[in-house]
Specification:
This protein has 57 residues and is mostly helical. The protein is 68% helix and 0% strand. α1 packs antiparallel against α2.
Length: 57
């Protein structure tokens, strides 16, 4: 979301925020997958962070 702060205009800002949300959704997917695997550490704390980020929109 740091990149969105340097947006050229309102439309560019919205576009960059939408990209950040897509990235958060993908990160959520991978963290949920990691939680299902036996040899990976629990990622619930990171998932909570992702949920907070996604609630910003």
């Amino acid at each position: 979301m740091k990149e969105a702060q340097s947006a050229e205009n309102k439309a560019d800002f919205i576009h960059k925020i939408k990209i950040a949300i897509k990235e958060a959704n993908e990160t959520e997917f991978w963290l949920l997958l990691c939680n299902e695997l036996e040899n990976y550490p629990n990622s619930d704390e990171l998932l909570n962070d992702i949920f907070e980020i996604k609630d910003i929109k």
